[in-house]
Amino acid sequence: VTKMPTRATCEVWLATLDQLRPDHLRVLDSVEADRLPRFTRPADAARCALGAVVLRLVAGHYLNTDPGAIVIDRTCPQCGLAHGKPSVAGGPEVSVAHSGDLVVVAVTAAGPVGVDVESVTGRPRAQVVRALSGDPRTDADLDIRDLLTYWTRRETVTKATGEGLDIARRDVVVSAPADPARLIDWSGRITPNCALVDLELPSEYVGCVAVLTSVPVDVRVCSALRLLTTAALVIAPVPIGASPLSRGAGLL
Ligand SMILES: CC(C)(COP(=O)(O)OP(=O)(O)OC[C@H]1O[C@@H](n2cnc3c(N)ncnc32)[C@H](O)[C@@H]1OP(=O)(O)O)[C@@H](O)C(=O)NCCC(=O)NCCS
Ligand SMILES: [Zn+2]
Asked: What is the pTM for the complete model shown?
């Protein structure tokens, strides 16, 4: 008799932009490397690069394989371009988010996962309020942390399903910031079984993770620094000029 699991686990790996080094870029595939020169702002290129690097390191850690050899599909179901939710061939469910200096990668075997983080200091308040328009909680005096808590709770759900922003987000109803994170309703469709957990992050960030599963999920937040500094990754130094970042945004 197979016992059904009563709880599941999800790990959320954190990294910061200062931890990115040129030799990390060697693990990227050509799709990932080719995206970087298109960013005009170096910090955007660095967030994108570090997200892809940490995703590979974490997936390699789970699969016990060379991070550079892992096949990651980013095909957008709508247009076929490689800008959709990443999926690791033969691997666990994953999700990537970045904001400010922080990059997070969520990984679990329990079901499709979505993670989101937002910097509390990084975004003009008015923009967030506008972005949330249509929601009852858009009063101008709402606390920025509350707004972003609500925002990230909703975005994790649509990132878990792989739909991202392009569905009407007001259809996703989550619990109020003061209450435990919970998906309440998704009007117009069958509400998926979804475990929502707010993340314990450095104080200038809020974040949440959603796992599409019917069992409660234990979330462990951990640092990716050990993976980023592991000796196996540091192969030979990248020749000057060979870094995709040095071609485009002038980073590193
Ligand atoms: C996914 C999305 C919500 C991310 O919003 P964001 O706040 O800018 O960025 P986040 O830090 O939360 O997440 C970014 C990561 O989400 C992942 N992602 C991209 N599309 C995704 C999707 N549809 N579902 C789940 N995750 C997605 C990627 O890994 C991305 O990181 P990367 O580009 O560095 O690889 C947003 O990009 C989106 O809605 N995209 C789909 C809508 C769209 O424009 N599609 C184009 C149709 S042709
Ligand atoms: Zn697309």
From this structure: 0.88
